[in-house]
Amino acid sequence: MLSFRRTTREDLPVIQRWLRTPHVDRFWQHDTSDEAVERDFAGSIEGTEPSEDFVVELDGRPIGFAQRCRIFDYPDDHQDLIELADVPAGALTIDYFLGEPDVLGQGLGTGLVREFTRLCWAEYPDAPAIVVPVVASNVASWSALRSAGYNHTVTGHLEPENAADDGQHHVLRADRPR
């Protein structure tokens, strides 16, 4: 069974290790120095950032990472997304990865997205939608979103994380269930 728990400082070395795995690095392209991991993930732990980070566990074993925020909490970072897609006020965005290579290819990505979406709806009862941009070449990610009930809304250019990508992104959206 998948579960989510807020990250702690003790999780930072695990997140760092996951960011260094080839399948995560391909799409996250994150600086994995101690300083960068501290800078970019400790704010969620300390409450100095509006984003919320989670360790994803499978039967108690840490296997991945998920994060969420309100899109308009970071308007500068999400300006291109706001201009490309229909982003209602109060909308969330999520990001995620499976960090452990031995759990890939088992449908857990879809389960992660589905369960994390349910958690978002429960904890953000006023959020009208979850809008997620995914690099078009990341088939596993946007397929997981589609399988979890998200709908493709638009494809367009957003600044890529990895210079190897052309910037084409699919934007997928889930609207709050009625």
TrEMBL record:
Protein source organism: Prauserella cavernicola
Q: What is this protein called?
A: Lysine N-acyltransferase MbtK
Q: Which Gene3D superfamilies match?
A: 3.40.630.30
A UniProt-annotated Pfam family: Acetyltransf_8
Q: Where is the N-acetyltransferase domain?
A: 2-177
**Region (Disordered) location:** 156-178
Name the keywords, alphabetized.
Antibiotic resistance
Report the record's Gene Ontology biological process terms. Answer: response to antibiotic; siderophore biosynthetic process
The record's InterPro entries line, in alphabetical order, gives: Acyl_CoA_acyltransferase, Acyltransferase_MbtK/IucB-like, GNAT_dom
Pathway info: Siderophore biosynthesis; mycobactin biosynthesis
From the Swiss-Prot or TrEMBL record, what is one GO molecular function term?
N-acyltransferase activity
Q: Main role?
A: Acyltransferase required for the direct transfer of medium- to long-chain fatty acyl moieties from a carrier protein (MbtL) on to the epsilon-amino group of lysine residue in the mycobactin core.
- Biased region (Basic and acidic residues) positions are 166-178
Residue ranges annotated as coiled coil are none
